[in-house]
Amino acid sequence: MTPRRLALFDLDHTLLPLDSDYQWADFLARTGRAGDPDEARRRNDDLMVRYNQGQLTAEQAAEFMLGLLAAHTPFDLAAWHEEFMAQVVRPDITPQALQLVERHLSAGDLCALVTATNSFVTAPIARAFGVPHLIATDPEYRNGRYTGRIQGTPSFKEGKVVRVKQWLAGMGLTLADFSESFFYSDSVNDVPLLEAVSRPVAANPSPSLRDIARTRGWQVLDLFEHMEDAKS
């Protein structure tokens, strides 16, 4: 039986008051696991600025972010990610975000995390939130190592719409099969998917997305209004 409603969640600055991609790279740099720490931080900061400006491509992000995966063994990466979850991610998972997800899960909605951040970084975070499905940018993996390249369509901008439709098609579904479809996001980069659902929600929106939401009459949800704003 098809669930009546679909609930899609962006991750960074939407369910989390931080950017997991940026924080992962920063974590590797400050723990001495990212080559030249100063150069890693410079590139990380540059990518974040361009992302917030809506001027970053998936390929530009992958060159640096997926390169960090390619430089190490999966064994080491997995161990480091456990530290990352304990030190960086879990302390910033808020009751408000958990409750938002739980409301949709308890209602029987089909739920998925839809993020541009790669699946290596985000799969454990999706599990922490209890979200059963993850649509993320997939890093290519061959012969026991990450290659530093993207596999398939990156889950970014218009690519999020493509990936969601592919995921639903694999279950014999389309967006039109749901009485309501929600997508929660903070970023102007996610306007294509926000436009594709019936219930777009600007969650903790950037100034540019807040303006768009007001113009179009989209719901605005500030989950972290009592927390220090982490946006640049």
UniProtKB/TrEMBL annotation:
InterPro entries: HAD-like_SerB, HAD-like_sf, HAD_hydro_SerB1, HAD_sf
Keyword Magnesium applies: yes
Substrates-to-products reaction catalysed: L-histidinol phosphate + H2O = L-histidinol + phosphate
Pfam families: HAD (PF12710)
Pathway: Amino-acid biosynthesis; L-histidine biosynthesis; L-histidine from 5-phospho-alpha-D-ribose 1-diphosphate: step 8/9
Reported function: Catalyzes the dephosphorylation of histidinol-phosphate to histidinol, the direct precursor of histidine.
Name the UniProt record assigns to this protein: Histidinol-phosphatase
Species this protein is from: Bordetella petrii (strain ATCC BAA-461 / DSM 12804 / CCUG 43448 / CIP 107267 / Se-1111R)
